[in-house]
Design brief:
disordered C terminus, 208 residues, four-stranded antiparallel β-sheet, mainly beta, globular
Length: 208
Amino acid sequence: LCVLDTYNQRVLVFAEDGTAIDIPQPLVAVEHGAWDRGYHHVNAILAVGDRILLMLHNGVGDSDRTSQILVLDRDWRPIGTWDLPHGGCHDLACLPDGTLLACGSPAGELVALDGRARRISAMMTRGLAVSDRDIVVGASQFSARRARTRARGALYFLDPAWQVTHELPLIAAPTCVMWLDRTDYGCAHPSARLPPIPLAPTAAERTA
């Protein structure tokens, strides 16, 4: 079991009996919000084959970086990163064919690592679940952090061609979306169409 300690920039790992497992931390330890010293606000983790992927939010206007996907091996060693088109992205999931997806949150988009993007909502996209036949994207009203408990949202159901088939309004902002009655490729994927060599320097190299 892996838990992201976002503010402290750590990955917490536990055995089935709850025993903590010590791992080499893939990111430097810095205080929350220290964007200029390597804070990334990690908000998603996904296991894909022999790789572990972390979503580096990297802020919106807080740094000169867009969001990145940090690629790790199974020993938690950084291999490299891929840059995304926006800062402030959330979530990681794969299509059944292995295409990697994320929420391009500030633009209200669903984006793919292969360069595809589709505007889903005028709201911020956050929350992503993928099954063999459906994609579900959450959306939240843009608001200051202190007002988010009052923000409304919606779920958008998409077909495999990324066409919205149904919108479900919500009285609160979704933060996590998951299928429980079918395979959810936002939890793990046996193999994905990841580029063999990362497209950018590792996060450790960027903050060295």
